[in-house]
Amino acid sequence: MRSRYSAYVLGDESYLLATWHESKRPSRLNLDAERQTKWLGLKVINAIEDQVHNEGMVEFVARYKVNGKAHRLHEASHFVRENGVWFYVDGEIKE
Questions:
Q1: What is the DSSP letter of 21?
Q2: Which residues of the chain have pLDDT under 70?
Q3: How far is the C-alpha of 74 from the C-alpha of 72, rounded, in Å?
Q4: How far apart are CA 74 and CA 43, in angstroms?
Q5: What is the model's pTM?
Q6: Measuring CA to CA, which residue among 8, 19, 15, 4 is closest to residue 64?
Q7: Which of 24, 56, 61, 67 has the most CB atoms within 10 Å of its CB?
């Protein structure tokens, strides 16, 4: 999760796509349109790993600003592990 957050901060689309599970991976991201986003921090709230099913969940809050206005993204991200590598599948936005 932290590496994907860092990739968003750096605008590293290739890393984000490479760590996105192929079943849900978009063909491309529009990070250029998000260049005005200033990421301010990441707080991991909870992380759960199911070793039997090779699945995991990370709940986090990411803070950012767009055009000077503060926002926060609270999400529970779902991951799967294949051949020892974790992939982002999808996320559920929390209110």
A1: -
A2: 33-35
A3: 6
A4: 10
A5: 0.90
A6: 8
A7: 56
